[in-house]
Amino acid sequence: MARFLDTNVILRYLTRDDERKAEAALNLLLRAERGEEKLTTSAVVIFEVVYTLARYYGVERQRIRDILLPVISLRSLRLPGKRLFGPALDLYCENNISLADAYNACLTLARGEPEVYTYDTDFDKIEGIVRLEP
Model-level pTM? Predict the structure, then answer.
């Protein structure tokens, strides 16, 4: 049985702003890495982590990618669309766009459906995406 991993546990681990909780979160993640725990989370949790790190902790985009990817990559962590987060975090860093836009661009490209109806000109920055206005 997998247990859901919420935003605040990941944040405590990454920010270490509460040492006791950070240590407990680290131990949980280590158990998951060893296969002793099965965890599941959602894209919403990852988006919340990125937003909180950037907005409230002032963490730079590249640093967010570097510290978050090992968590996302845990073999015992189930995350729908997991394989898209590496490329999405790269686009997030390289193009100065939201992670949501980067993820959606990666999703459409992975599906072979590169045309996106949007008024958001950030999609113009992404190679392979064709932005269309309705």
Answer: 0.93
